[in-house]
Amino acid sequence: MLGIQKIQLSRKPPPLSGQPKRLKDVELGFPIVYGTISFWLGKKASEYNSHKWTVYVRGATNEDLSVIVKRVVFQLHPSFNNPTRIVESPPFEISETGWGEFEIAISLFFHSDVCDKQLDLYHQLKLYPDEESGPQSTKKPVVIETYDEVVFSEPSEAFFLRVQNHPAAIIPRLPAGLNLPPPGPPEPVLEKKRGDTKDHPLGQWFMNFSEADELLKLAAARQQVTIITDFVCF
Amino acid sequence: MDAKDILGIPKSFPASQEKKARPQKEPQRKPDGISREVYALTGGMAPLMPTIEVSHLKRKAVVDKEKITWQWLPFTNSARRDNLQLYHWVRVVNGVPPTGDYQFAKYNKSVDIVKYTDEEYEKYLTDPMWTKEETDQLFDMCERFDLRFIVIADRFPSPRAVEELKNRYYSVSRALLITRAPSAADVAGHPLVKEPYSMTHEMERKRALSAVLSRTKQQELRDSEILSEAKRIMESRKASKGVESADLLDDHNDIEMTEKVTHTDSPSPSSNIQPTSTAAPSAPLTESATTPASLRMLRVYLRTHVLDQMVQAAISNAGPRTIKRVEQTLSDLGVHIKPKVPTKAVCAEHLELRKEILTLFNLQKQLQNKEIEASATRETFAEPPGTPKRPYRGDTDRPFVPEAAGFGGERMGKRDHKRKVPGRFIDAQSSPPQSKRPRKLKASD
């Protein structure tokens, strides 16, 4: 896919010092899931600590996000001690106890070769289940997750090369004419803590996001609309 | 007799009493100066205090200083050259008649006309169009009539236009002024010298004025139209000039930016969106980036945010009702308003679906409008009012229901009522196609 194409890159002015070379018309997508899981404490619940909850950001397929994410900052409700929680290494999550629901601001900071701008996400912490779910149980948590994709447009070449084979990334078909150096030898696996969430203790509660389902529905819907439109404009 | 006596005596008794009483009261009642009834208002008594001080009343102004009389006296008018004596009433004060000129003499003003000698005429003032005689006559008349050229023109022996006369007079005066002046500078400020009379200009001006006055209404309208048209063209020309210069500027900036950021020049859409690349605000919150070209400017963004913006852009010219209908349609079709798994493919499909729904609604609306138009024109052709169009349609529609059954054809009955606002998408789509069929049948009848 990368190809050893000797075709010259499109005429771009040579990069000025300090500016990385960028790949035009390429965008890298990183599917992420962020959300909260909240357990009712049952007998152990007190007035101010009725629930134990965790807010986190993970790769959608539970891959390691630290390939792009340098740190994540969770901004909690001011009533918490140190409401600004910084997490420098995966897994990017914060666990807390509390009684109230509020909006958590999650800021993703990326590595310097990835992007120098942060990305902000917002998530409403939900502790109490909906009416129809029945009474609270300590065994079944309230899980709210949101799927989204972080897209980097015109990534720098270095960044691209670094992640092109990473499972967390969605690499598109590269436009023709892109002349990339061949991939070097794979990085030696360092003995650092695993960053992926495949064996996460809360993993059993993670939701599955299948795009196939949604695509099917959308395709069916579009078909219906097309039929009706044709009907109208005969 | 006894009765009389009885009656008489008592009659006379009170009568006599009355008579006594009345004369007694009479002097009491009758006051001086005011009538009896009015006096009665005061309670039958004179007021204790006099209400009006007689001394406070105005006295007639005492003319103690002067003694004015009016006399019929003769007078002379200095404005007259003959010694005509006329008479008028004069207010004489203490026997002294007023002095001073006749009070209206001061209004006898005249214009100073330049006078030229014959030599001056020979030297400076000859003109092929004018004989000396005529010029003299002209000047004489000018003096007589105080430069009232219209009168002069009327009385002038040979038929000359007013402008010609004016021209002659002013040019003569001007020439005289200049020649008589000790130096040119002195006279340079004189209006005659500064702005000489131009006969052609004057004639043109008067002609134009009369043309303007005599324009018909139609002409006026046409003229104003043409003027506004010209104005628009001028403005559009100016605007295009301005845009060109602005474009040039933008291109310059763009080139600078791209050199800094090592971007190739992107064509004009992105020229408007320049400064975001190094700015602090994080990507999803930047409002300016909506076009694909400018998406490249953002280094990082969330797909959902982009989708939202695209959706907004697509909906931008639709009203809130349409937006609701679109969302209702989406949920009817089993699609989430915001996709749960927003991958690239899903987002693209979602956007396309929304656009298709919008197109569908637009078509339906157009169809409805055309139908309304068509039915309106049909009605104006004086079809009998009782024409059962609706029931007609209803009859012929039933055979078509099975075809449209998949879309909830049971709502057909309510279709007519819900013509204007088809709240249900299913409802809306069934009515237009159905109604077209009967029309076709009708035409073929």
TrEMBL record, chain A:
Residues 1-20, 174-195 are annotated as: Disordered. The lineage of its organism: Eukaryota, Viridiplantae, Streptophyta, Embryophyta, Tracheophyta. It is found in: Nucleus. This is YEATS domain-containing protein. InterPro entries: YEAST_sf, YEATS, YEATS_dom. Pfam families: YEATS. It comes from the Eukaryota. Residues 22-166 form the YEATS domain. Keywords: Nucleus, Transcription, Transcription regulation.
Automatic annotation (TrEMBL), chain B:
SMART domains: SANT (SM00717). The keyword Membrane does not apply. Residues 126-175 form the Myb-like domain. Residues 264-290 have a biased composition (Polar residues). InterPro entries: DAMP1_SANT-like, DMAP1, Homeodomain-like_sf, SANT/Myb, Swc4/Dmap1. It comes from the Eukaryota. Residues 1-34, 260-290, 373-445 are annotated as: Disordered. Residues 17-34 have a biased composition (Basic and acidic residues). Pfam families: DMAP1, SANT_DAMP1_like. The keyword RNA-binding does not apply. Keywords: Chromatin regulator, Nucleus, Transcription, Transcription regulation. Residues 436-445 have a biased composition (Basic residues). Its main location: nucleus. It is found in: Nucleus. This is Myb-like domain-containing protein. It comes from Platanthera guangdongensis.
